[in-house]
Every structure is written in C-alpha cells, then in structure tokens.
C-alpha cells in the first residue's frame, strides 16, 4: 500500500465503497447473538440513534481492536501507571468487542499486561488526531539522550535501531515522574531525527545546556551535570554511524548507551518534551489458522472469527515496526474469506 497506515485505511474504504459495502456510522455493537440450541453466533445487536436492532448473519468477524482507550480495563489488566495515558489511536478502542468474545467463552492469550507504547509529543491530544495521524511520534532518541523531570537519564537510548525499541520505550517513559521525559539533541544528532514528525512541535533551544534546561523547566545544574557525565563516558571525536549498530557505547555509565553514543557538545542544543502514548494492547483472544475464535476448551466458537488487534499471542514486551499492519492485513484477509465462505456454505479458504 501507499501512505503507510493511513494510506492502507483509505484504500480499504475506497475498495469497500466501490463494492457497494454499506458502512454504518453512529452504530455501536452491544451484543453477540447465539443460537440457543447450537451455540453458533448468528448475529449481532447494534445500537443506533433510532434504537437497538438485531442483525442476523451467517458468520461474524470481530475487528474492534484492543482496550487501549478504556481506562478501567487498562488499570485492571496493565496496572496503575496506565490510569492516565494519551491514546495514539481511536477513542473508540474501548474493548467491548473483546469482552463480548470472552463472555462467550473465548480463550484469552498473549500479554494482557503489555502494550505497544511509544514516546509522543507532550502536547499531544488525549486521543489520536486525524489531522496529525501518527506525526506526534518521537522515536529519534537514539541520536541524542533522554532525561526525566529530575534531569536524570533512565534508559539505554541506543539499545537497537529505533523500530525495534520505540514500541516499548513509551512504557518506560510512562513510568517516569508525571509520565514526562525530555529528548535532547546537539547539532551533530539533529540532522538524523525524523524531521516530518518532530516538525509538529516547536522545541526549546539554548546555546548552553543550562539555558536549555531553564527553557524546559529543568534544574540547570542537574541537567548540566547529567550531560557532563554522559560526555565523560565517551571518547572525544568519535562519529556515530546511524546506518549500522556501530557499537559506540558509553563506558562506566548507568544506564549505558549501547550504540550511537557521541558527546552532546555542539550547540545550539534543542529539547523536546515527550510523554508515553499507548497505541494498542497486546492481550486478546486466541484464533486458529482459519481465524476462528477458539474457546477455553480449544474448540472453535462456531460462526465467530477475529482479526487484528483483538487477537492475542503475537507480541510480548516489545514489537518490531510495521508488524501490526501485517497482522491486521493477514488475519483480516483470512477471517473475512472464511467467514464469507462459512456463510455461503463453502469449505474454508485455509486450514
């Protein structure tokens, strides 16, 4: 697809409309309907502005996402640090579809205490913006350093390339005081940041670290000391290579920076306030190779399929970039094809 996630979504809507698929807005799923004799899922109950109606179906595909926008479920499954968090996506990903599947006996699987969470701009809206899409992401910390409100480093910014660490770094930021952190760059690291993303914020800037600290609301002496300690742990004159894991690491510093460690010494310095942003939750329901929802006795729930974020068992503790789009595309295609074939009385598309 073109245009990454938003481009994929636009193309899917265009295809659906071209095929004459009717799309309902202001329509909320409020229940799954089972045949009392067989237990097969045979329909859904939907609430619209004119009331609640029951729709029959030969099969149902749940694609309603995780529970990242549900405060109560976040705290229940993930813990108190997730009580307050900015949601990168839709405010409607509140987990009702997932809970309905569990109530029918679906088997839970995956890391229910985990989520894709990345650093985002501190001034980001509470929920995802269709205007900004994902441009609030702040994943270029590998080219500088990060500190918390106490002006202390708290993570290995250079553990790996950012597509392999950004989805867990938001959780680390979320664990800092007031869920706040600051990404600091000098003129050597600044050319490597994701410019299109960082351009949606106006950074603080200073000719000295102390001046930058004042503009960020940090203690100038503490931040100056943190940067000085960081600089002393690095050989002078080394130049990072952003294209490889260059092994340029700090020495005797805790936490270490394992790659791309170069001194922060070329002004003017810039700083971006960030916070944690949750993208999607990792816990979900178990599906088989046909994308059928599996119950707690390892049997498929007849007539019920699932795709995308609602499915669990794919990610634990971390996530490689773009694999969520892959999961959604693959499970969506399998679930859609097999649900349609079941509704038409045809054999499954895959086994």
Summarize the structure.
With 351 residues, the chain is an alpha+beta fold.
Question: How does this structure look, described?
Answer:
With 351 residues, the chain is α+β, with helices and mostly antiparallel strands. It is 25% helix and 21% strand. The chain contains eight helices and 14 strands. The protein has helices spanning 4-18, 71-78, 96-103, 166-174, 195-198, 209-216, 220-232, 323-343, and strands at 28-34, 41-48, 51-56, 60-62, 86-87, 108-109, 115-121, 145-147, 180-185, 204-206, 269-281, 284-285, 292-294, 300-306. Strands 5, 7, 8, 9, 10 and 11 form a six-stranded mixed β-sheet that branches. The protein has a three-stranded antiparallel β-sheet with strand order 1-2-3, with helices on one face. A three-stranded mixed β-sheet has the order 4-14-13, with helices on both faces. Strand 13 (292-294) and strand 14 (300-306) form a beta hairpin. Helix 6 packs across helix 7 (220-232). The longest helix is centred in the C-terminal third of the chain and has 21 residues, at 323-343. The protein is elongated.
């Amino acid at each position: 697809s073109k245009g990454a996630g938003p481009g994929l979504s636009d193309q899917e809507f265009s295809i659906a409309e071209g095929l004459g698929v009717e799309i309902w807005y202001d329509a909320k799923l409020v229940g799954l309907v089972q045949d009392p004799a067989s237990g097969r899922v045979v329909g859904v109950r939907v609430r619209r502005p004119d009331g609640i109606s029951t729709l029959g179906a030969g099969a149902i595909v749940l694609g309603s996402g995780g529970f990242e926008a549900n405060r109560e479920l976040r705290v229940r499954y993930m813990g108190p640090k997730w009580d307050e968090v900015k949601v990168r996506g839709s405010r409607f990903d509140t987990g009702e579809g997932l809970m309905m599947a569990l109530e029918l006996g679906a088997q839970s699987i995956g890391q229910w205490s985990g989520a894709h969470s990345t650093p985002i701009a501190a001034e980001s809206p509470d929920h995802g913006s269709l205007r900004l899409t994902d441009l609030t992401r702040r994943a270029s910390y590998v080219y500088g350093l990060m500190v918390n409100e106490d002006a202390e480093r708290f993570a290995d910014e250079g553990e790996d390339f950012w597509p392999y660490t950004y989805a867990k770094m938001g959780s680390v930021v979320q664990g800092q005081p007031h869920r706040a952190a600051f990404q600091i760059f000098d003129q050597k690291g600044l050319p490597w940041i994701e410019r299109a993303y960082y351009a949606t914020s106006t950074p603080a800037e200073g000719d000295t670290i102390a001046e930058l600290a004042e503009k960020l609301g940090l203690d100038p002496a503490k931040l100056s000391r943190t940067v000085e300690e960081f600089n002393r742990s690095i050989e002078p004159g080394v130049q990072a290579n952003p294209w490889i894991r260059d092994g340029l690491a700090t020495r005797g510093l805790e936490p270490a920076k394992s790659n791309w460690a170069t001194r922060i010494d070329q002004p003017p310095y810039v700083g971006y306030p960030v916070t944690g942003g949750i993208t999607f939750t990792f816990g979900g329901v178990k599906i088989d190779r046909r994308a059928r929802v599996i119950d707690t006795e390892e049997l498929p729930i007849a007539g019920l399929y699932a795709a995308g974020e609602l499915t669990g068992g794919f990610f634990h503790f971390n996530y490689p970039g773009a694999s969520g789009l892959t999961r959604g595309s693959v499970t969506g295609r399998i679930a859609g094809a097999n649900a349609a074939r079941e509704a038409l009385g045809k054999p499954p598309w895959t086994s």
